[in-house]
Design a protein that fits this description.
heterodimer; A: 48 residues; 2 helices; elongated; B: 182 residues; Rna Polymerase Sigma Factor, Chain: A; Arc Repressor Mutant, subunit A; 9 helices; globular
Chain lengths: 48, 182
């Protein structure tokens, strides 16, 4: 355990923060990112 | 050296966290996705500078954060202010019975200065240690601690919850919801 706890891990604020962020993390990922990585990969393999 | 399949898989796995961090920083979903895109391109280009075995997520967060601040410098403050004014208008009044909803929290978070917002997000939500957060932000551990502490106080003021007083009535529902705060 940390001696200091600037966040107050058991506080209302900490819980709301986690909830806010977890909602964002669980959003569906737009296809553009998978497309982007495929393009990067293709660009690289065509470079040889 | 070619980008390894492992690196690509790890990048994909990091996208949800990167988006959440980007939205938290920019408070704007479209800008956030542009930030994530830019981060992925940079990470791909610089993959050789990533030290295997170190924390990829922290490395990516650092890239995204640098990109955010450099875009902000380029755009100037007015874009940010316009966005803020917009959400302030959309903001819902604090709900009754002292129970905060997500919109209240979001608009409260938006009122924090960026340095405090990123600190409390990195520590309280993204799961980084104070040391990692300090490295991501390029500052001292003590600075992160004081930013987190100021952010917390400010959020409590805005949302009118006092640190522990609000804890009582809500403790039960937190348990029911299986709060993972540790």
């Amino acid at each position: 355990m940390r001696r200091e706890d600037p966040l107050g891990s058991n506080s209302e604020i900490a819980r709301r923060l986690k909830q806010y962020y977890d909602d964002l993390v669980s959003e569906e990922i737009p296809d553009r990112f998978a497309d982007l990585l495929s393009k990067l990969e293709q660009a690289e393999s065509s470079k040889g | 050296m070619a980008v390894s399949p492992r690196f690509k898989t790890d990048l994909i796995a990091a996208i949800p966290s990167l988006r959440a961090f980007a939205v938290s920083l920019s408070q704007n979903a479209d800008r956030a996705d542009d930030l994530v895109q830019e981060t992925l391109v940079k990470a791909w280009d610089k993959h050789e500078s990533f030290q295997l075995g170190t924390n990829l997520k922290a490395w990516l967060f650092t890239i995204l954060r640098n990109e955010f601040y450099s875009q902000m410098r380029k755009r100037g403050r007015e874009v940010q202010d316009t966005d803020g004014a917009m959400t302030a208008r959309l903001a819902v009044h604090p709900s009754q019975h002292g129970k905060l909803d997500l919109k209240d929290f979001r608009s409260a978070l938006e009122q924090l200065p960026e340095d405090q917002r990123e600190a409390i997000i990195l520590i309280g939500a993204s799961g980084f240690s104070y040391e990692e957060a300090a490295e991501i932000c390029g500052c001292a551990v003590g600075t992160i601690k004081s930013r987190v502490s100021r952010a917390r106080t400010r959020l409590q003021d805005i949302l009118k919850v006092s640190g522990e007083a609000e804890y009582g009535p809500d403790a039960i529902s937190a348990q029911v919801m299986g709060s993972s705060a540790a």
